[in-house]
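S.,

Sequence below, as promised.
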Amino acid sequence: MRVAFTSDLHIDITAHNRELLPYLVEEIERHSPDALVLAGDIANTLSDWDVALEAFRRLGIMKFVVPGNHDIWIESKRALRRAQDSTWKYDVALPASAGCHGFHYLPQHPVLVGDVWFVGSLGWYDYSFRDERLEGVISTQEYERGAFGSKIWNDSRYAAWLREPNSSNWRIRKLRLSDLQICSLMVASLQRDLEQIPSEIAKIAVALHTSPFLSCIERKQVPDFFDAYEGCTRVGEVLGRCATGRAVTVISGHRHKPLDITEVGVRVVRSPVGYLNDFHGDYQAKAAEVIGWVEL
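The prediction came back faster than expected:
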């Protein structure tokens, strides 16, 4: 099975990102794969998520999607007061939209295609990827706040996983789950989905927005506060156990750099679009550059 994949379309970040959409579709059509995987960070709003997924409707192939952290950002305080928080987007709004546009929303349930099971999750982070060179410089509380000096991790502003979104008491309703709690929920959900796959199945494709291994990110020369939000080592451990006697391929996103590595028997590939702030080139060539290909 030949699978096309990409991530981090960010169609509402720049006009170039949005204008790239039809060229991505044409590039995929040109090569006639069996399936497409979008590994998250499509758009910040539901309306733009709809625009992006609709662009791929004409592809007569299996289409899979998982959201990224941008996709579950809340869109207004008014929406939050209506309990339309990140959990609502992740569990209700995004899967409904995906289904309307012909995509399988993998966090809902695994999908068997031929001899390959497709599984998916947004994933999250628990600061296990934080740069050890910053130990003693940045506290756990600062990672939890998503703020260090002038640096702000935008999920701390725009993601809101409410503990009790339907409480009649606003003071209770506005309380949020911590990153560690969200990450634990994501890890547990992914593990449950993987455990549902029959043991005789030899091929598994996991669409995962965040990174499962520290080796998926490249440390910068200057220690980076934001590395803490790249992924979670526990996800890698779950995948490593699953890979015993199986071919496990992870299609990832989040980090805006291409990747193809293998760790503990798990192959991880990434082919993101990223932010096209300074792009002034050939859209067709760019589409060919950012669509990845993998044989399963």
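The CA atoms of residues 173 and 228 lie 27 Å apart.

Coffee later?
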